[in-house]
């Protein structure tokens, strides 16, 4: 496959490109774009990725593969359980403000081990070893609200817990990053929270903050 000739420059175009790539992946029609010698050479001096993908580190959710993209297309930031901290937010801001990416994806997936470990820690008191606890500590704020009604956390299904976590992560990112929020307000960027399903490879929209076209823009919800 030859190098991409036109890289998306708007949130809507970037979203359309990611959607197309994920459909190709789901249907086993991948083009493996931007992975040849020409593309490598073209990128040696500079990069203009069209999306920041901030996702879970899970080995089964590799961004370039599931969106059928190549070198120079995606600025990828990954942590276990897609948990945020200051260097993660700084990395995402770099992709948007410095490199000019018009879209940020927060990529969650089903059967996330970080979410499961957090539920385990909160219901049994089992504390993960070493700095793994820091990951769990950053998932807790996403799902602790579910217990407000008094219902035990371990009675919620994994899909509900994962959904809450990705929604909270997207809102948290938008809330913490002043520069990203400004880009969203001015229409230069948008944030899309996606839930990826391991079995079928499809990434589904959980939430949109900003405008990605086709009537999918929404007002950012408040915590
Ligand atoms: Zn995960």
TrEMBL record:
Its EC number(s): 4.2.1.1
SUPFAM superfamilies: beta-carbonic anhydrase, cab (SSF53056)
Family matches, as CDD domains: beta_CA_cladeC
Enzyme class: lyase
Alphabetical UniProt keywords: Lyase, Zinc
Reactions accelerated catalytically: hydrogencarbonate + H(+) = CO2 + H2O
InterPro entries per the UniProt record, alphabetical: Carbonic_anhydrase, Carbonic_anhydrase_CS, Carbonic_anhydrase_sf
A Pfam family assignment: Pro_CA
Function recorded in the entry: Catalyzes the reversible hydration of carbon dioxide to form bicarbonate.
Similarity comment: family membership: Belongs to the beta-class carbonic anhydrase family.
Name recorded for this polypeptide: carbonic anhydrase
Source organism: Cellulomonas avistercoris
């Amino acid at each position: 496959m030859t190098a991409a000739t036109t890289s998306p420059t708007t949130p809507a175009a970037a979203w359309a490109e990611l959607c197309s790539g994920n459909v190709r992946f789901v249907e086993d029609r991948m083009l493996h774009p931007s992975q040849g010698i020409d593309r490598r050479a073209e990128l040696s001096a500079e990069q203009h990725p069209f999306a920041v993908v901030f996702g879970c580190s899970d080995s089964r959710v590799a961004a370039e593969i599931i969106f059928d993209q190549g070198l120079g297309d995606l600025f990828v930031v990954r942590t276990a359980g897609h948990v945020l901290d200051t260097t993660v937010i700084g990395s995402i801001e770099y992709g948007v403000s410095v490199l000019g990416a018009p879209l940020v994806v927060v990529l969650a997936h089903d059967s996330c081990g970080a979410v499961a470990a957090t539920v385990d820690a909160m219901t049994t008191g089992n504390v993960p070893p070493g700095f793994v606890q820091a990951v769990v500590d950053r998932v807790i704020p996403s799902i602790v609200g579910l217990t407000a009604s008094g219902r035990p956390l371990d009675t919620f299904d994994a899909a509900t817990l994962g959904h809450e976590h990705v929604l909270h992560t997207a809102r948290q990112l938008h809330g913490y990053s002043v520069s990203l929020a400004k880009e969203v307000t001015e229409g230069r960027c948008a944030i899309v929270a996606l839930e990826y399903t391991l079995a079928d490879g499809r990434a589904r929209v959980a939430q949109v903050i900003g405008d990605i076209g086709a009537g999918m823009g929404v007002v950012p919800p408040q915590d």
